[in-house]
Amino acid sequence: METDVEVTRRSFMRGLGITGGAGIAYGAMSTLGLAPAAADTGGRTFRPPRRSDLLGAAQGDHSVVILGGGPAGLCAAYELRKAGYTVTLLEARSRPGGRVWSVRGGTEETDLNGETQTCTFSDGHYYNLGATRIPQGHITLDYCRELGVEIQAFGNQNANTVVNYRGDQPLADTSITYRAAKADTYGYISELLKKATDRGALDDVLTQDDKDALSEFLVDFGDLSSDGRYVGSSRRGYESEPGAGLNFGGDTTPYSMHDVIRGGIGRNVSFEFGYDQAMLMFTPVGGMDRIYHAFADELGGDVIEYGAEVRSMKNVPDGVTVEYVRGGEQRSVTADYCICTIPPNLVPRLAHNLPGEVIAALGAARPSSSGKLGIEYSRRWWEEDERIFGGASHTNRDISQIMFPYDHFGGDRGVVVAYYSSGGSQRAFESLTHKQRLAKALAEGSEIHGEKYTRDIASSFSGSWRRTKYSESAWASWKGAAGHGGEAIPEYELLLDPVDRIYFAGDHLSNAIAWQHGAFTSARDVVTALHERVAASA
Amino acid sequence: METDVEVTRRSFMRGLGITGGAGIAYGAMSTLGLAPAAADTGGRTFRPPRRSDLLGAAQGDHSVVILGGGPAGLCAAYELRKAGYTVTLLEARSRPGGRVWSVRGGTEETDLNGETQTCTFSDGHYYNLGATRIPQGHITLDYCRELGVEIQAFGNQNANTVVNYRGDQPLADTSITYRAAKADTYGYISELLKKATDRGALDDVLTQDDKDALSEFLVDFGDLSSDGRYVGSSRRGYESEPGAGLNFGGDTTPYSMHDVIRGGIGRNVSFEFGYDQAMLMFTPVGGMDRIYHAFADELGGDVIEYGAEVRSMKNVPDGVTVEYVRGGEQRSVTADYCICTIPPNLVPRLAHNLPGEVIAALGAARPSSSGKLGIEYSRRWWEEDERIFGGASHTNRDISQIMFPYDHFGGDRGVVVAYYSSGGSQRAFESLTHKQRLAKALAEGSEIHGEKYTRDIASSFSGSWRRTKYSESAWASWKGAAGHGGEAIPEYELLLDPVDRIYFAGDHLSNAIAWQHGAFTSARDVVTALHERVAASA
Asked: Where does the record place the Amine oxidase domain (chains A, B) (predicted)?
């Protein structure tokens, strides 16, 4: 979900010396039919459990109680039902999806600050307070297909959105379109590299033929003039849109090389190259939660108990007993197995008989801050005034980014995500009241998109995952890990194994933390292990 | 519409010394409220004609005959009707849109080679044989909004599509994902520039602070290791998709610096930076022709005569007389004014009384070749096998590119554009029969996406604009112009003025040739001029 997650994943992988495997690019491999499909789970292809696996093998009925109706829990329930397991899924909230939460008119939530918000967005308008985008490689798209959830492109990159960075550097506090930031940055680095190679500064590395080929590339990449300089480019945009007749629009003037380099206006372009952020990206039509309502519909009314707050989870002889409160009543369920997808930071609060080392391991998955605030505007000023149709503006202010809607294009209203921040930038918001959050978001946002940012506001709604009941974390950050995976971390590895008949699942036990894909692959791994165990127990 | 058009536009603008105007980036300007909205036509904002302009000014009824029901003709008719002009629009085809042509089941066409094709695509499937994408700045989006045409994102860039270049160079005939091509290219140019600056090769240009800032940028931009080398990146993709537990996917190995530079695998990345190709891009839901059906619906049944082949267009005293054939009958219409949007290459074939210099000027707008072939597959192999959801693969073969559908994601079938080529690459197709075109497209396409490219084909349909009746050209290339505009070209400028009461309009008279925006802005200019003339003639 996050730039910083991707950055740290890369660092982490490199730290482990994994860089430089035996393969070539996945795309090229699968083109040649040499690689497994992208959705495969590494060496082991997931095979959904089948009823026939159990017939004649494991006798009788097999039951599983699943704790949590987010992506991992629902996916596990869905896959286990394929083989006829008796599944009970306990979800504390009144809705499926967990941290996949689409906020729309009627959404009501009391946060852990004690504040209750009720969303009054217009019909058909929403934003995803949690997961909002899907990369092409993730099996999330496979579930969309399998469940009949319609998807659409998600605008994860837009030449017309802007960067605006506070600071003392050149071009500070200036809103610069991505197209201009990229054109100037690429222009000058091309000019510089061409100059250096022309001077022979890299002759020990490059042959004359290399230099010729590189020069040809750089002239195109940087849009350089015939004398090898960057002097501007139509890629930056025009003073006004070119039209017919003699209306050539008028070229713009690039910023100086010094300002571009020292201002760091290209600092965020690598976001677009990230493995799980590069376009094209996707999202379900009507909200990310459509996936989980589809899971719930598939499971039918008997499997999921909403409003079920789990209080106790204990291995007992030949099973697991879970106690929970629902509708004010104490209840209990005992099943052959349990899959616990409750966030690792909340599991230790249950009554349990887990070993101390497991509790310690859960504690190594540290909760993190992230949140969003959505504003419904009654005028799509970003389209009408700035020709921005989707995508996000970025800043080093606490709001971090402003995300524009990818739906209702050309309509009369729309929901803008006024901040999506994490870490320290989010902590600046999470203890505030909603009104204070909105004020801060408007103050920072109007520094980027002007005074109109504060007008035509119909309503707003915010959420902070650290202050959201039943989550209290946006995603897990593993203690001591350089990144978001846990191969080298004993605590992570420990939790991959069941504790007797209790299995843990969730994106925190994957290499795609904060992604639905991580939750799904974790659920699949647990379902596979559990199913193999049952089938072998005949 | 085309890379090469964008490239030549840029060269052309620079040739005229227009580079380096007085402004800053458009986006930043409009952010600050300093610039006109992007859709404005340069210095002069288009104001639709109003009935009140004529009341008490020009007496009586005012009539205009419009030749051609493509974007320029329909836009002109639509705007003139706002002020109550009596408009007759003659369109030779049986449909609106001209070169905006969405091919779907039931589409039938006999081309100038004499071959008749009937499209049998499944319900809801189509491709745009002409215009297929809309940049955010273009007024095409304003007309979509005004006419209630729903738009969606168009995948004009995709990390999972591939490049594959024939030749003797390294990595020739190898399918490489865009994500890998970009990661390796950016990695090595970052490594090289960092090395050069570290060596002091650019110390006359860069201060130490500049060098530090540049280095920080390059490490991020190229995903360099701590010692400043490019040794691969997760941005390239993984050997297989990372999942849960210990499935880290496995990193890939980058190509060598020499191969990347000499192979030119990054040669096409600048396509994504083009002013009118940079994401986000848009297209109407259901086909680009939805815009023109919406125009036609707005105009109502009395304005447009389909199947009307114009034979003669002559200025007569106080009007223009147009003769045409419809339903086998000779017909004639005389109006106060005429707007001729017939392609410039076809106008001289009419009977006319235009001056010789006008005919010569029309001849300077030279017709060009372009065309597409759409294949309906009964399996979405690009999604299932290659995780490609939209976007295009590119090659230097004659097919030039393979465009994947931006609709019906996750469905059971879809239409792939198996080539979209222009110039010499298209001339290799246009004289072929459809069967021959398909065979050539499959042969080249399967070199890129494998043998599956030739399987699961339900049907196909192709078109070549040079061989398409009533067009005979994809777009105009102005003689002697370095690019696609015509400021410095007397022939272009001559045609901006009316010949007595005949006005010319079309994208060929704009600085957005091959774009609907060019046709619309041209139509608006003509409507404005005509309306001002009528109002002044009171």
From this structure: 72-529
